[in-house]
């Protein structure tokens, strides 16, 4: 009996995508076994294709930055500024029985390119249409991830106290909006399964970004307490920070008074068992001095020793790992995604899926190698749409594909 997740193989996504937010969304769906076809202009393609270095000499539209979340997809080229291109798009929607169309084009381009919800739903009434914009479907303001971090308050909360605001180490506005869109797509699929109706989904990256500010928003608007940059410390818990060891760094997260009592009962830590530190509020009041004194103790241990000691008393602690060390962590080492180029044998490793269930494996699938620009033109235009070689040559000569 086939695993129930194999049903995703019957879904088709056509995605006019570039950069990060929608490509990561379609990659999440590809991990579920959904057929994903990325749509690009034949000349002005996804700029991420040309960022970094080519994976092999001469492939200047297959550079390293493109590889992180584009495996498992097919790729075709189509100039939607051409009337013939828009007609081909409508044929694709109908012939391929496209379930989901998604784009992160600016809203002003929707009707110009013939990709607006009204146009595509007139071809396929039950289509699920997803438009991801920076500031809403009525705004044409461009939104790069750091701009959203700045405007959305994330930079105000990231960095050292009194220091410059800092961008986060990962593009949360991009991937966060992708995850929110993924959830909305699943709701729309459920709605269609129950009612037979399609959906229009507008995901606003700015709103998605601000939605992560759970504590800061409530604290500022309800209690009048404005949260600011605190470096590695926590607004409400202490000691919670990075501490040095003799050979690296650990992060210790003391979440309650009981954990603190166990910590200061350890040999070498007893001098920190002071009345003013009995409560979390007292520790927060003197957090800088407390952390300095605690660091004097932690640097006497090597990382492995300190982690073992704190694990034994159930105080949360972790080594501050480099990315290569994360990749070798036994808790995640066997969960990374991989694909291989059948032409060159080049292998690419990608971050693991966010859930324990491996839908691809359960469906008997693997991720294909990131597609070259227009790699599947012949298969889709010539195969699915039945175009002759002469038609394809003419469309290519005229800049339509």
Please provide a brief summary of the model.
This protein has 401 residues and is an alpha/beta fold.
Helix/strand order, N-terminal first? EHEEHEHHEHHEHHEEHHHHEHEEHHH
Number of folding domains?
2
The whole-angstrom Rg is 26 Å
How would you write the strand order of the largest sheet? 3-2-1-4-5-6
Q: What is the CATH third-level topology name of the largest domain?
A: Rossmann fold
Percent of residues in beta strands? 5-15%
- Helicity range of the residues? 25-40%
Overview of this protein structure:
By secondary structure, this protein is an alpha/beta fold. It has two domains: 4-212 and 333-397, Rossmann fold; 240-321, formyl-coa transferase, domain 3 (2-Layer Sandwich). The protein is built from 16 helices and eleven strands. The protein has a six-stranded parallel beta sheet, sandwiched between helices. A three-stranded antiparallel beta sheet has the order 7-8-9. Strand 1, helix 1 (21-31) and strand 2 form a beta-alpha-beta unit. The longest helix has 24 residues, at 172-195. It is elongated, with a radius of gyration of 26 Å. It starts with 11 loop residues before the first strand and ends with a helix. The model has no long low-confidence stretch (mean pLDDT 96).
Topology:
Layout: E1 12-16, H1 21-31, E2 35-40, E3 73-77, H2 83-95, E4 100-103, H3 110-113, H4 117-123, E5 128-133, H5 145-151, H6 172-195, E6 199-204, H7 205-211, H8 214-222, E7 240-245, E8 248-253, H9 257-264, H10 280-285, H11 287-298, H12 303-312, E9 317-319, H13 323-328, E10 337-340, E11 347-350, H14 359-362, H15 377-384, H16 389-397
Parallel strand pairs: 1-2, 1-4, 2-3, 4-5, 5-6
Antiparallel strand pairs: 7-8, 8-9, 10-11
Helix pairs in contact: 1-6, 6-7
